[in-house]
Amino acid sequence: MENDMCRVCFHPEERCIEVARGENLLRAAMKADVHINASCGGEGSCGKCRVIVEKGDVKQKLGVKLSEEEVKQGYVLACCSSIESDLEVRVPIETQIGDKSALTRRPPIPLKGYTLSAEDWAKRLPQWELNPPTTKRHLIMEKPTLEDNLSDAERIKRDLARLSGMNDLVIDYPMLQALPGMIRASSFDVTVTVLDRGSDLRAVRIEKGDTTLRQAAIAIDLGTTTIATQLIDLQTGKVIAEAADYNGQIPYGEDVISRIIYSTRATGLAKLQSAVVNTIWNLIQEMVEKTNIEFCSITHLCISGNTTMTHLLLGLDPRYIRVDPYIPVAQYFPWIKASSLGIRIASGVYLHCTPGVASYVGGDIVAGVLASGMFNSEKMTLYIDIGTNGEMVLGNKDWMLACSCSAGPAFEGAGVKHGMRATRGAIEQVRINEATLEPMIITVGSKHAVGICGSGLIDLLAEMFLTGILDERGKVNVDLDTPRVREGNNGGEYVIAWAEETGTHRDIVITDVDVDNLMRAKAAVFAGINIMMEEVGMTLDMLDEILIAGAFGRYLEIDKAIIIGLLPDVDTEKIKFVGNGSLLGSYLMALSGNLIKEAERIARMMTYLELSTNAKFMDQYVSALFLPHTHSKNFPTVMRRLEEARERARTARGEAGGSDN
Amino acid sequence: MENDMCRVCFHPEERCIEVARGENLLRAAMKADVHINASCGGEGSCGKCRVIVEKGDVKQKLGVKLSEEEVKQGYVLACCSSIESDLEVRVPIETQIGDKSALTRRPPIPLKGYTLSAEDWAKRLPQWELNPPTTKRHLIMEKPTLEDNLSDAERIKRDLARLSGMNDLVIDYPMLQALPGMIRASSFDVTVTVLDRGSDLRAVRIEKGDTTLRQAAIAIDLGTTTIATQLIDLQTGKVIAEAADYNGQIPYGEDVISRIIYSTRATGLAKLQSAVVNTIWNLIQEMVEKTNIEFCSITHLCISGNTTMTHLLLGLDPRYIRVDPYIPVAQYFPWIKASSLGIRIASGVYLHCTPGVASYVGGDIVAGVLASGMFNSEKMTLYIDIGTNGEMVLGNKDWMLACSCSAGPAFEGAGVKHGMRATRGAIEQVRINEATLEPMIITVGSKHAVGICGSGLIDLLAEMFLTGILDERGKVNVDLDTPRVREGNNGGEYVIAWAEETGTHRDIVITDVDVDNLMRAKAAVFAGINIMMEEVGMTLDMLDEILIAGAFGRYLEIDKAIIIGLLPDVDTEKIKFVGNGSLLGSYLMALSGNLIKEAERIARMMTYLELSTNAKFMDQYVSALFLPHTHSKNFPTVMRRLEEARERARTARGEAGGSDN
To answer: Least C-beta-crowded within 10 Å: which of A144, B41, B118, B602?
Structure first.
């Protein structure tokens, strides 16, 4: 029987798995959580699941779509191969693009230095130690006697103070109620978990024996669309499991505004709270199951979300976030028992929500600013997180200005005819051939295209603009000699995929109206940036760094974002991707009580700049409703690339190369 | 119709009431809460309800038991009189003895100076101001604007800090959840009630408009038998209503030990908690109904009880209080939300339990020591609270020693054949005629006697000893020439009431065994006092004051207590009655956050002396198992009185008066 098992190792992932001899190689990869691009479902028709068998034998179906050259190089189609022996399999880069789910999809190969390395992080953060807000202390107490007759609670407090100088521990009633039985069952040998809430020291768990080596925390990015979580071993400070899922509130509304509206229904708030708690609880369970950590080892949770998401989680009425003057119930959130929200970990365990600055600059941004280290740096930094709103922070360790511009949900696919979230089948990358104006597309999950997501839209706009399909005002040039451009119901349109190539069996197009919506979104972001700069009398050259945060940033090709004028035309080396700043900030806070205090300081030091009433904002916005911008002199790189691209296009199409026509 | 109402005023109570013409005068008195001794139920047979009609007319039944002289003086029997006009009625002192219920029964006329006056109290307490732990602040806030966009919670915190320097207010989640609607409904004009918990400032209520003039608190003495409560107007610091009732836990056990045993049953603790909460809630309702205070004006509760009662209220497992080494779960109790216990006042309102010193020296004693002012005095003071246990505190402002001796429940009537609590029909005062050895008794409620309560037992023992019915060893002298003494099943016995005079239609007696139990109880208390004195090297003459606390003390005739050797033979002017020290302490803490801190300091400064393992205790105890004590030289006053009484008895009985026989 043992000989019927084969060990398959995948490179470059270095993931190995034991499977039964005869197993399908694509299934083995899936089981090993190795992504292999396969869009036909495994019938060998798309030919995308090409891998190289570097060692070992597979049995292949006949008639597979491989060239002689490929077969010589060891290529096989994973979906058509059954495993005959132990294998070493290399997954070539082209086979990795796209992913089994949008939440774990791989980003495009970024510009060198775009994504910050661990060393980069270390330099950015202030000196901090692994010093979580909860601490475990093992107490071997003297048993009470008639002479030493302190109460159970005072005995624990006394020994804790003696051992670690922690005075005035608060033990709350549910814990006191369980205390006398527990403390005697454990012969007065217990581990006390103490939470430093700043205002007091609170016992969150008292348990038998020495459990000091078993302590974990949860970090959560509470996004409107996606909730990403990490399980952290507090012995090492390392993330030992991750999980992500769509926010269970999505059925009640795609964006914060529709959720706020839903929350005003009779039981709306309770339903939304319950939905997000369920998602979080499922993710925690998923992570715990992956590891040998027990639920009772989790001693605290750190959560960062935008102001609305934080309100919905905590059951706070968000309705006034939506209406002028946009007032949340709270900006700073006391620690709250996770169990009181329905998160069923040990009942004494508390949860911390990162404070926010205003209704539209929330804890996710504060966490990101913390994680980015900009609050600790001399460098003049612009931090941008683009989602439904574009949230931006400008400043450094001395001051920070924050604003939010209603980018509209265009970059999330809304207001765009075939727009969609970055789920399976969403077009996420686009190239347009300068000569033929034919597109090349990559979809999430490498499925037949069903729509186009944010990163795809930016790519598409940039490509259309460079190839002359779009003019400076964002109108499709329907006079071009290609069937891809045509007049539609919403003005000019460009066909990205023909019906027969799509999963919807309809043409996927982008229209003048779509482009207009996208232009408004990018104009709002760009105007916001400019207003902040103006507010402090800064010019672009004074900017040392632009930090892009959020899932959107991961898939963003920054040069394309500059081409359409979403980002300013700066040296791309100044632009860094900080990843999920909200999650990273939550992770850091879970590791350090000092960073929790730091986050509160950051929230307090940020000045919120309200754009909706800013007189200059509308001027800036209108100026930005061009590609790349009305003031094209501010986009010298873009203008040069545009010139080059159009020159190449003319050449390729065999037009007259003269610059004077 | 108006003319059919009569106004009846009772003196010396000065209570007036409007009743219908023709109403029975006894019923009118009852309605006015004026006690008139009436033991026959109102049929005119006992003749005890004699009152003097000073003005106005009553119609009397014929054949009432009044002498001609009495009729001339204006006496009528209240039970046999119907009201014919407005009346001025004087209730003579003999008619006032006893009361409608044990809880409000009138004490015997005490020795001059025994009960402390308000002026006495003022001198005893440290300088303190009306400074309750909760404070109301009226905030008229600026409405939020785009420029001033603080969250609702931060807006309140900002204005509170500006107005009163209170920083870092904590507003908990239930309150945050209700906040945005409430704050807007009141146009940002609110009153915030802030609780200073020592560790933090916590909003307990945020309500519309200015309610600062409406604030009340509740003080509670949480007794094993009786719960006494006060409703305090925090504008004036005055008690505006009082109520008392038996602890609803009594059906589950008469004393702390039987309740602890009951609490170990499956749902025992929950039942006991629920029972006491019900009693408290009913009393609060009763008080609120008597006044124009609203439930929502109550901003905090201060409760003092013994350690077991406090545990049962808070749902803490008391089982280890009962077994060596007698360890409670906690001695200091964090503020807890009253609503979390089921006390249905405003949900954010907190309750404070006075800390205790040990399992048998609880918050009631600490509250009493606070109320007595001994913690603030140079005077060397002995504080005694006698119930099931005798709890004693010796010391002054510099040090305090506390102990508890298991007096046994004898003084509460247990272990005594016809013992009972001080409820209706309990014999509470006794005099024995020196010549005839015939007793004169007064019962609670002036009903036919059904048993004898603690104060009656002390009275009885002293009278029996003085009249020679009891010898020094506590044995009944059955050789005396009266049918009242006889041999019974439990040794010698004395008949206090013959069957035909009682409510039980059985002879009420006291037996040698009863006396023995009472001797043990008094010996334990006296030994405890002596051990404490010895411990600090004190002698009786160094004692400046003895403070008697508790309901028991109110009815205690201290000279009788000295005669039987329960209290030491000191100048009776040194002995003061502090009343319900536990309730008074609770009242003071409700008025002053500083006194709450002071109570904690008192609890910490008290040294608990464990008697059960004290080698000298048994010696002292055995020495005290005599009347008044083995070392009679320490009771010179008693010995003199004894000599006088026996001399008078001999004279009265016509025996030879010679001192040499």
So the answer is: B118
Give the burial string for A169-200 (b: 16+ CB within 10 Å, else e): bbbebebbbbbbeebeeeebebbbbbbbbebb
ipTM of the complex: 0.79
Please name the member of B146, B151, B180 whose beta carbon is closest to the beta carbon of A324. B146
The 3-state DSSP composition of chain A as helix, strand, coil percent (nearest 5) reads 35, 25, 40
Chain A residues lying within 8 Å of B152, measured CB to CB? 320, 327-330
Task: Look up residue A391 and give its DSSP letter.
Answer: E
- Report the Cα A542 to chain-centroid distance in Å: 28
Exposed (0-12), middle (13-18) or buried (19+): which is B440, by Cβ within 10 Å? Answer: exposed
Number of H helices, E strands in chain B: 19, 28
Q: pLDDT tens digit string along B46-73?
A: 566 788 898 999 988 776 677 777 788 7
Query: Given this chain, do its domains A2-96 and A134-208 carry the same CATH topology?
Result: yes
- Per CB-CB distance under 8 Å, the chain B contacts of A358 are 149
Cα–Cα distance measured from residue A191 to residue A177, given in angstroms and rounded to the nearest whole number? 17
Higher pLDDT, A618 or A501: A618
> pLDDT tens digits for A425-444?
888 878 788 888 888 777 77
- Residue found under tokens 């232009």: A519
Of A172, A320, A330, the CB nearest to B153: A330
Q: Please name the helix (run of DSSP H) or strand (run of DSSP E) that holds residue B441, with its range, or none.
A: strand B439-443
What average pLDDT does range A591-615 have in this prediction? Answer: 93
Chain A residues closer than 8 Å to B151 by CB: 327-331
Q: Which CATH class is domain A2-96?
A: alpha beta
> Would you state the pLDDT for residue A492?
95
Q: What is the 8-class DSSP label of residue A79?
A: G
- Thinking of the domain A377-405+519-637, which architecture would CATH place it in? 2-Layer Sandwich (3.30)
Return d(Cα A89, Cα A29) in angstroms, integer. 10
CATH architecture for residues A216-353: 2-Layer Sandwich (3.30)
Res. B569: pLDDT tops 60: yes
Q: What is the rounded distance in angstroms from the CA atom of residue A392 to the CA atom of residue A547?
A: 10
- The closest CB to that of B146, out of A176, A315, A612, belongs to A612
- DSSP at A468: T
Longest alpha-carbon distance in chain B:
105
Q: What CA dihedral angle connects B453, B458, B464 and B465, to 10 degrees?
A: 160
* Distance in Å, alpha carbon of A354 to nearest chain B alpha carbon: 15
Give chain B positions within 8 Å (CB) of A199. Answer: 168, 170, 199-200
Question: Which of the two residues, B477 and B438, has the higher pLDDT score?
Answer: B477
Query: What pLDDT band is residue B538 in, cutting at 50, 70 and 90?
Result: very high
Instruction: Please report the pLDDT score of residue A352 as a whole number.
Output: 98
* B262-305 confidence digits (pLDDT tens): 999 999 999 999 999 999 999 999 999 999 899 999 999 999 99
Residue of A149, A260, A308 to mutate for B, most B C-beta atoms under 10 A? A149
Tokens 């980018």, residue? A407
CA-based end-to-end distance of chain B: 76
Is the predicted pLDDT of residue A385 greater than 50, yes or no? yes
Domain chopping of chain B, boundaries = 2-96, 134-208, 216-353, 364-409+519-637, 412-512
Yes or no: is domain B134-208 CATH 3.30.70.890? Answer: no
Q: Quick one: A546 exposed, middle or buried, by C-beta within 10 A (0-12, 13-18, 19+)?
A: buried
Quote the pLDDT of residue B381.
Answer: 96
Nearest beta carbon to residue A336 from set B173, B184, B329: B173
Strand A298-305 and strand A238-246: the pairing is: unpaired
